[in-house]
Amino acid sequence: MESRPNDxxxxxALRARLAALDEExxxxxxxRQAMVTEIGRTKAAAGRPTRDFxxxxxxxxxxxxxxAAQNVSAELAEELLLLLIRASLTAQERERVQAGGEGxxxxxxxxxxxxxxxxxxxxxxxxQGYAVAVADPAxxxxxxxxxxxxxxxxxxxxxxxxxxxLRASGAILEELAARRPRGVVFDIGSLxxxxxxxxxxxxxxxxxxxxxxxxxxxxxxxxxxxxxxxxDVGVPEATRRAKELFASTMAARVEMDLESHDRLVAYILGLxxxxxxxxxxxxxxxxxxxxxxxxxxxxxxDAQLEVARRVAAENPHxxxxxxxxxxxxxxxxxxxxxxxxxxRAAVRAGDExxxxxxxxxxxxxxxxxxxx
Length: 372
Description:
Layout: H1 9-45, H2 53-69, H3 74-100, E1 107-111, H4 116-127, E2 131-135, E3 146-147, E4 159-162, H5 166-179, E5 184-187, H6 196-204, E6 209-214, E7 227-231, H7 236-245, E8 252-255, H8 258-284, H9 290-295, H10 299-312, H11 316-324, H12 329-348, H13 352-366
Helix pairs in contact: 1-3, 2-3, 5-6, 8-10, 8-12
């Protein structure tokens, strides 16, 4: 066999040794994960929480000290251990949810279960032991039993989750009220005021109804640091049952009234979405080629670009509903427009004190926001 011009026996030998080291590293990771699983089971048996922030800090500190002794970057050691901790927590949380068996022997129907969040909810409920079925005109969702129209279901499930688009969800909730299902019913909509008539109709009909908002996307695996909002609509038992679904996870469970929810979501979702849509629209219409901008990018630009990239890949129809159906959305968009006008006016007028005042005001406000 002829040797290639770039063949170098010494280099090939070094690469082979590196491959062997990589394999040993992965074997150590597997051993660590097995030990972490055992620790998770021990903590669960003792009724201790999955996450221990003090222990995590000790692990990171120990890794940084060991890295210094080995002449390895402390930052690299910290990033590596944080990645392993996250993988460990994900595995422990998944096992704890499965062990909880909240839905063992019960049945659940996810209306709109072929959508991204509907699929997430179907998988989440199945992991708790629920026998899950999906109803969605878009077609089947993975391995779950499927009907294209929920109206053909007898609705004799222990749990019914409405995961359809907002406009459709409102109509579905009102129709469900007329059927009076016996199980707990809740939506997972990003807004609640458009759903108010349907939620109220279910409550008036004596149905065990509540409203839930998972504050994360469908790709989320680890719920630590995430929030799930529960909006009680006058049936505390239903809210309690919904909260119990997330009791074995590390998600922060927050109760909130309907009006406060949509007012705050106007800023949490509406404002942040609008800011990124304006950002990538300005870039797309600037006439500047994206590769050229990437060559000259800064740390701030790169961070903003990554967020904007994720926003641009989301469902535009859902994002339009979040902007257009929120009764409080106009205030957030108005505040964004006024802020841009003030910024532009300060720059055009050469008013450095006004510009600096905006930045100082922002720094003061953001100082009160906890870092994640």
